[in-house]
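Hi P.,

Sorry for the delay on this. The queue was packed all week, but I finally got your sequence through. Input first:
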Amino acid sequence: MRPGTENVAAIAGLGAAAELAARETDARRARWAPLRERLLARVRADIPLAVVHSTDDCLPNTVSLAIPGIPGEAMLASLDLAGVAVSTGSACASGAAEPSHVLLAMGVPRELAAQSIRLSFHAGSTERETDACLNELVRCVKRLGAIRI
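Then the structure:
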């Protein structure tokens, strides 16, 4: 430890931010849950081979899934070119070449973890944005050859 003055303003700001987040948690959960269910229903209908990693005890604003046969990095690049931002792992592991350590800890096989992407909703996400994301996801999966219609 070093002697010095604590950053009181930052400490107070963190406390205020935590209080605000706690007040908004239920409202955001109520907003995101239907969007998440909409996304999952469409994925199951249009990309039946998709593997959704978890639907129990998960965050309402995040979906992690894999498309067997398509590397996560290929999906990420294809969706990025279409204007859809996804990731292949957690935000804290951005830029890592390895599959998500979280998925591996959940028991997801390494190959499937490497084929995974993570989609997240933001505070202002809408049904229209969700549908646009899904449309691009289906197009990318078709283009990359995992499903034939």
